[in-house]
Write a structure and sequence with these properties.
By secondary structure, the chain is an alpha+beta fold. It has three domains: 111 residues, Orthogonal Bundle (Butyryl-Coa Dehydrogenase, subunit A, domain 1), CATH 1.10.540.10; 108 residues, Butyryl-CoA Dehydrogenase, subunit A, domain 2 (Beta Barrel), CATH 2.40.110.10; 139 residues, Butyryl-CoA Dehydrogenase, subunit A, domain 3 (Up-down Bundle), CATH 1.20.140. The protein contains 13 helices and ten strands. The strands form three sheets. It has a four-stranded mixed beta sheet. Strand 9 and strand 10 form a beta hairpin. The longest helix is centred in the middle third of the chain and has 29 residues. The two termini are 40 Å apart. The model has no long low-confidence stretch (mean pLDDT 96).
């Protein structure tokens, strides 16, 4: 990203250099180890908390920085240059997926106890929405929370939960009422609560530097005071943070594509075929030109959506368009990077192989491409 980019100020770019140095020194050297282990070292969250990275958009009162969304975009972009997309996804869950509803709907006591710890990295947080039978269909989730005196008795299970094995607290979508969105609430469930367990750590195709788990709740007794907001308002609390969540996935995706492009250019300059570097073959050069153009379009679409969020303008359509385009473009661009590498692109020693596996999740998580299209169609007034 050029420092002359109109979207970012000198302050943003100075912060970019800080994050980039941190990534180069403290994350990139560990990525291969984390990929092999199937999870990051949780101590890295404490380190990021010390540097003020985990609460950029949150109030100073709770350990945040009260920075604008552009500062968050800088952070998302730079953390995503680490050589894998799994670990950045876990970080985005901490900063912009699991914690926004806590910041939006939580009371002072909840934020003082949990949001401070999330911003400092003392606690890792996960958000548990998806279930074995329900994913995009949040209105029909089955995990039940029945109020008994001062406690909710929670029973059910959650699937595909990022940070699931590492989380100290789980922001959990539960059913406290009847059918539909109006029966959905949010409970903060501490991982040491009796009746809560990690059913299993899930083995995945990609995103290996990030853990994913099935969570089980069996007569899990959660204090009533851990209800976020009021009963029946959980869905709306989740929606309040959806724009930042999807924009973070946009940044993760187009930055992953950017890294793949850089790797492809480096390889094409070094690889000689038919007596010249393959970058001098028009077919390869044109592939690279198309990749660069599509990545730039991703950035501009995401920046436009972010500017609307910054101004408080409703932009469900624009954010959905950005999420759809950025994630699908990342898959196309990284596929071409693998193709340019030829047989080497299929080898694990090359970053593009990892990015190829990692990027596939982006069109599924945080709202599938099909859901994004459904939202866009509705926002265009083509469906009630």
């Amino acid at each position: 990203m050029s420092p002359r980019d109109y979207f970012f100020s000198d302050e943003h770019e100075a912060f970019r250099e800080t994050v980039r140095r941190f990534v180069d020194k403290e994350i990139r050297p560990k990525i291969n180890e984390w990929e092999t282990n199937g999870c990051y070292d949780r101590a890295i969250f404490k380190r990021m908390g010390e540097l003020g990275f985990l609460g950029l958009g949150y109030p100073v009162e709770y350990g945040g920085q009260e920075a604008d969304i552009r500062m968050s975009i800088v952070f998302w972009e730079e953390i995503s240059r680490c050589g894998a997309m799994g670990f950045p996804m876990s970080v985005c869950v901490q900063t912009d997926m699991a914690s926004p509803s806590l910041a939006h709907a939580g009371n002072h006591a909840q934020k003082d106890k949990y949001l401070k710890a999330v911003c400092s990295g003392e606690k890792i947080i996960a958000v548990a929405i998806t279930e074995p039978n329900y994913g995009s269909d949040v209105a029909n989730i089955e995990t039940k929370a029945v109020l008994e005196g001062d406690y909710y008795r929670v029973n059910g299970s959650k699937m595909f939960i990022t940070n699931g094995t590492q989380a100290d607290v789980i922001n959990t979508v539960v059913r406290t009422g009847g059918p539909g969105y109006q029966g959905v609430s949010l409970l903060l469930i501490d991982a040491d609560t009796p009746g809560f367990s990690v059913g299993r750590k899930l083995e995945k195709m990609g995103m290996l530097s990030s853990d994913t788990a099935e969570l089980v709740f069996e007569d899990c007794m959660v204090p009533r005071e851990n209800l976020l907001g009021r009963e029946g308002e959980g869905f709306f609390a989740l929606m309040a943070g959806l724009e930042r969540e999807r924009l973070s996935v946009c940044a993760l995706s187009y930055t992953g594509a950017q890294v793949a492009l850089e790797e492809a250019i480096k390889y094409a300059k070094a690889r000689v075929q038919f007596n010249k570097p393959i970058i001098r073959h028009q077919v390869i050069a044109h592939m690279l030109a198309d990749m660069a153009t599509e990545i730039e379009a991703c950035k501009r679409l995401a920046y436009h959506a972010a500017s609307l969020v910054e101004k408080g303008i409703s932009c469900n359509r624009e954010v959905s368009m950005a999420k759809l385009y950025c994630t699908e473009t990342a898959n196309r661009v990284i596929d071409r990077a693998v193709q340019i590498h030829g047989g080497y692109g299929f080898m694990k020693e090359y970053i593009v192989e990892r990015l190829y596996r990692d990027a596939r999740l982006a069109t599924i998580g945080a709202g599938t491409s099909q859901i994004m299209r459904h939202i866009i169609v509705r926002e265009l007034g083509l469906r009630e």
